[in-house]
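Following up on my earlier thread - several people asked me to post the actual chain instead of describing it. Fair enough. Here it is, all 179 residues.
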Amino acid sequence: MLTKGSFPLLIVGAFASTVGLAPAAAANKSIVGTGVLLDGSGATRGQVTLAERGDGMVLKLTVHGLPKGQHGVHLHMVGSCNAPDFVSAGGHLNPHGKMHGSLNPQGSHLGDLPNLTVGSGGSGSLTARLAGTKAELWQVLFDGDGTSLVVHANGDDYRTDPSGNSGGRIACAAITRIR
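Reply from S.P.:
Thanks for posting it. Predicted structure:
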């Protein structure tokens, strides 16, 4: 049986600043997990979905009402988002205890995702393919304590351990398995 520490995963991301999810996406049978992104006051700031693609998974995040600029985005070990600081989400999802960041010679880990670009209107989106088989990803993402996605105040530098100097946690979504 695989656990959070049992296999390496590679994250390959691409992002765009203004792509949204259509309401019909909820009916898409490839979607296996969703979460509502909340800020520290409990206001809804977006949505995250996990969908099966081929033998892997793709994460999509859409946001609104966030500060303009670059924001670090990470998967965290616990599917809990207690406001206002979201410490309940735990540390980064890090199956092999690697260092942080795609530019770190000892990184990266599953929790590392590309930066989110938020435009002047407060909206943005991010898409990242999570490498690994569906079976491997299911066991890591939907284990007993779940997984969350956290948006940080600043951009991630992709190298500084433990969080890429990305600042405080400003929004969080507990990811819920939907099938």
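The chain has a mean pLDDT of 83. That should answer part of your original question.
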